[in-house]
Every structure is written in structure tokens, then in C-alpha cells.
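Proteins fold reproducibly. Next comes a concrete instance:

***
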Amino acid sequence: MDFYFLGPHSGPMETFEPLVRAEFAPKNTYLNTASLGLLPARTVAALRTAAEAVAAGQPTDMFADVEAARACFARLVRVPERQVAAGGSVAVYSGLVAASLPEGAEVLTAEGDFSSVVNPFHVRRDLKVRSVPLEQLAEAVRPGTALVAVSAAQSADGRIADLPAIRAAARAHGARTYVDASQAAGWLDLDAGACDYLAAVAFKWLLCPRGVAFLVVPEDLGGLSPLFAGWVAGERPWDSCYGPVDELAHTARRFDESPALFSYAAGRRSLELVEELGVDAVRAHDLALADRFRAGVAALGREPLPAPGSPIVSVPGLGDRQGELSAAGIEVSARAGNLRAAFHLYNTEADVDRLLDVLAG
């Protein structure tokens, strides 16, 4: 796999490139991170070690891995770790936020946003859910809007929400903001403390196994009720195993789900790698490849959907070629009839050019 790293990086390229080479060796042209990120070698090794330790009757302290993962994610999104809950699903955390709203509250969402973000609000029939085009979200906030829920980057086509404008509009009308960063964490510079709630799964751009997800809440816990609190949500978890939990955690840990321990034992290594490489360096690399593909596909007479500044590129009318591309060893995805390619740190210029060559026929 030949690497050509494009654009400025926060650290020297001689550090970035060897790290990526050491961790990834895909056997195909993998351009589908928006569906599932590749696992680094260190992550696979950690998963194997954890599984073998349990098989030998000598399990490692995987709860320590949960705490290490929580702390690393907190650093990546620039909040104290006490504001981060660890779980396994954005939909669960969306449901938690939905449950905190009073009857009749208005929730503003983006049209066509990912179901895990919006559906829990629709399930509550006593809420008023209003959807508008993503680009109109900020101007659509009005008196009486209680919450704006939106993905930082859209799953279907990579469009990036104008989070500063949305936050400002919400603040002006006394509304809270809930951001799903599943398609953004790992490449987009995120300040989770600037919104009220932020959730993200980590099996995409953060390169973790499935089963790792996080929720960021305000210092005052944002008025959320720990509806699914079990023993791990106790201030002293090992003293909270039987009967009602006497004292819930004083931090966001009260919103922890019982963790998928093997996923966290491995996932902490993925998060550490992203932190080691640097989000700025990852973003510069990813966006340069995405722009190369945009220019190349435009030269083929196809116009990608507008999503400036995103490593996700969606091209109308080409979704039916996904099977053909897969047969040629190129993994992309088809969404709403569009071909969706996602470019991440393990991809190269050669990957982009191979995709363009096959599309050109």
C-alpha cells in the first residue's frame, strides 16, 4: 500500500505515515468508513489478548479500559472526562434526551437525518417534532423550540451542520442542542462543551469495534434522568450490585450503560491512535483525498452532492454500481441511489485513482 499524504499536518509526516503503515494493511480498496472503520493492528491485538485472558480464567481489568477510553474521548472532544458517559448506542442516548423533555415540547431536526438521532423523539407521541432542510436549521429555531437535534455530519451525503450558527440560534431562543458526532468524531474539530449534549458511536471514524459509544453532558448533567441506571451508574459501582443503587455517580458516569467490555478493551487502543495521529492531521489527509475524488468524478461528468469540507462524498446516479465496485475489490456504499465514498487516514491517492478508473469503465 503506497501512501501519499496530502496537505498540512499538525505533526511531521514522517510520524504520521509510519504509524498508519504499522497499523493498517487492508487487502482491498476500502472507502467505506462512513459505514465501518477499519480496526488498527493494536486494537486487534488488544481484543485477542482480552479474549485469551478470559479463556484462560485470568481476565484483564477491562473496566480500567473503559475509563481509559472515556478519558481519551474526552480529550478528543475537549471536555473533562467527568462530563462523558460510556455506553454502546446513540439511539439509547437520544432516547434519554427525549425522555427529559416536557409534554408538548418542540424538537427541531434536519430532514433526512439518521434515524438513531431523530426517531426516539418521534416515538414520544406527545412531542412536536419539526423537520427542515439542514441548511435552514439555524433560522428555523423559534420561540417555543425546546431542542435542536442534528448530526454534525450527515450520514447520507457528508454535509456538515453549521453548529456555531445552530448553537447561537438555540441560545437566543432558550433551546438546548443535541449533536450526533458519529460521522464527525475522529476527523472534525469538535468542541463538545459548546453544545448541551453530544453523542457518538466510535466504530466509524474512531476505528473502534462496535459496542463503544459516548454521551457528553453539561457539568450540571443537563436535567437528564438516569432512566436505565444499573450498578455501573453507582458512585461506588462494586457496592451497588444488589438492590436499589444508594448513590448514583456524581458525574456523567450515572448515564453509563453496562459496557461491552471486550469492545472497550480494544477500542481504547483505537482512540489512543487517533489522539496520537492528531485530529488536525487526520482531517487534512482525509479532505485532500475527498477533494481529489470530487475533482476526478466531476471530470467524468458526474456532480457530487455539495458537502464542502467533508471526507464523505455522495454521487447521484451511481449507487447501482456498488456491487460492481465490490466485485472489483473496492468497498463503498449505496445510499438513496447515490454512491457514497468515505476517505480516512488509511486511504491513499492510489485508492482514489483506482475508484475513478473503475467508474470510468
